[in-house]
Amino acid sequence: MENKSVIIVGAGLGGLATALRLSYQGYKVTVIEKQPKAGGRLNILEKDGFTFDVGPSFFSMSYEFVELFESINEPIPFELNELNPLYTVNIAGHDRVFQIYKDLDKLALEFKDIEADFETKARKYLLGAKEIFHDTEYKVVKRNFDSILQFLMSMATVPMKHLPKLFRTFWEELERHFDSEEVKIIFSLVAFFLGATPFNTPSVYNLLNYTELQHDGYWNVKGGMYKIVEGILPLLEKKGVQFIYNTEIVRVTESNQNLSGVVDQQGIEHKADIYVINADAAWFRGKFLNRPKFTEEKLDKLEWTLAPFTIYLGVKGQIPGIHHHNYFLGNNFKDYADTIFRSSVVPEKPYYYVNVASKSNPNCAPEGCENLFILCPVPDRRIKPNWDDADQLVDEIIEDLGNRVGFDIKNNILSKTVYTPVEWEQMFNLYKGSGLGLAHGLNQIGAFRPKNKDEKLNNLYYVGASTVPGTGLPIVVIGSKLVTERINNEYPII
Length: 494
Ligand SMILES: Cc1cc2nc3c(=O)[nH]c(=O)nc-3n(C[C@H](O)[C@H](O)[C@H](O)COP(=O)(O)OP(=O)(O)OC[C@H]3O[C@@H](n4cnc5c(N)ncnc54)[C@H](O)[C@@H]3O)c2cc1C
Prior knowledge:
33% of the residues lie in helices and 19% in strands. The protein is α/β, with parallel strands linked by helices. The strands form 5 sheets. It has a 7-stranded mixed beta sheet. It has a 5-stranded parallel beta sheet with strand order 9-2-1-13-19, with helices on one face. The protein binds flavin-adenine dinucleotide. The site of flavin-adenine dinucleotide has 36 residues, from helix 1, strand 14 and helix 15.
């Protein structure tokens, strides 16, 4: 008997990780990808002698990658590298840069002048974050839900002591533990990874500080993040997985409560027994399945994560005052967070993140040069549809960064590429340019998030940022495990 065939639409990490799990179990997998190469947001840009990571530059929960490769009985095909310090924070008006260490003794030294008794406070804060992480990991994050009732029943088994956290914001939780504005700001930066601000993110997500500062820290990959994709591809090839690149699915066909095919831009229909959609799970349901719950009007009313505005700079010279991972913040944190994501004009004093991969991986820039990846979170295209004024923001950031690190970046640029939310939307079909997909408010997680199994069509599944459990590299790897479990149950290999 022929092995069951699976078409995966999209070669993002969610699609690739699912392809790995399924192909190693014996499913016959084909991946169809719009772009000329695999990776989705986890991509690479090679230009003018420089190599840039296009999207993700580090991740937490590295053990999820370890689990992925253990599950297929292969050694991990890239080298994990733990970040130390985790990152640095540069706050306007401060003449020092904060180095953020996982080692609490070292971190306490860093904060000793600004937060009395930091270490005791931090240990208490992190203990609360640790408890909620471990009390929810298997009850909320790492399992499939078939109904809202089942989800709520699982939530009800989470110890009651965490209940008040549902009614506080991320920032309010920090205020209960720390006095210094700087410590609160720094510990709240992780909320932006969820694509929101600490002022509208539920306090339960303080658990991310536990994952960052105690549990597993932050990691990247030796030689650049794209090594993840380059490590996965030969394994898929070994298992006979077919890739069809430069091919966008623009329509689907249905019959007898099944998806019967996906049709590309040339009108060619691709068929399989099972389909896994790695494109945005909410957008796909609206755009191709015409589901009333996912019309543009309904999607616009959901909470979406912030959009990325990214700049890739190749710079002549070595920039002294900058490290591998750096945040550059202004001195009006709350006002900025409150207004920036609702404003349709470019921010005047932008907050941004800079990754200088050449600091640890000299191969990604010509000798004597640096490569800079700059990420400025901005409103998505529901709020600011037009980015004709992108140059203004680029100039503002380059000017500010040059001043803050004491290096003439502007006059030493050898390579420059800019992706506004318009490009991000076009490249990977990200809904209105939202960088991380659907947000993670309590009404958009678990059974309230678009499911990884279609509501109507039996052989249709989803994986990736906007389905369960959510966004971020290790989380979509968990998502690939969850969707594989469903497929194994419903379409087992005989
Ligand atoms: C700028 C930026 C920085 C980030 N930084 C980090 C970070 O540091 N750490 C971290 O953990 N996470 C980070 N993230 C989030 C992380 O990149 C995502 O959560 C993750 O990569 C999502 O993977 P995915 O498989 O869900 O989707 P994607 O990577 O978007 O893959 C989906 C694929 O489907 C393809 N596709 C879509 N529609 C179609 C179609 N109709 N036909 C064919 N193909 C289609 C797309 O081209 C794409 O290749 C970042 C994201 C961005 C944008």
